[in-house]
# Entry
Amino acid sequence: MRISADQRTQNENRIRAAIDRLLRGEIPPGGGCDIKTLAAEAGVDRTAFYGSRPYAHLRAEFEHRLEQLQSNGDTPDPKTAQIERLKAEIDKLKERLNQAHSTIEELTDFRGQALARLAAQHEEILRLRAAADPNTTVTACRRHARKSSGHADARSSGDVSHKH
# Structure
């Protein structure tokens, strides 16, 4: 069915108004900033935007204006903006996760080295104890309480004093 020139003009006006709304971010629920939603908002068949159909030039205009907005960093579709924001957040979280895994590996290695050193030191202590001459007697020295007068009292009692 052919449409009159007046009907075509009315359709083009509705399409241009729908283009303006979509590019301002007035996206209907369940829709997007795309040709399918544009056709539904304007009340025309979607196939009229493709090939040599009557509104193909308006599809090209819509896509060009949308690309311009996107190249300027504007995203009329809030879902698209949210998707981009979430992708960036996911990238940051992946980086934090990689750093956390790296830190965990480093700390695990450090723990293993520390335990190995402690075990080696313990073995050395046991070896030294076993190697000690059993005929040697070790006598514990008694410490006398020092009086406030200083080292003279300690020397007179027979203790050896050490200068620090």
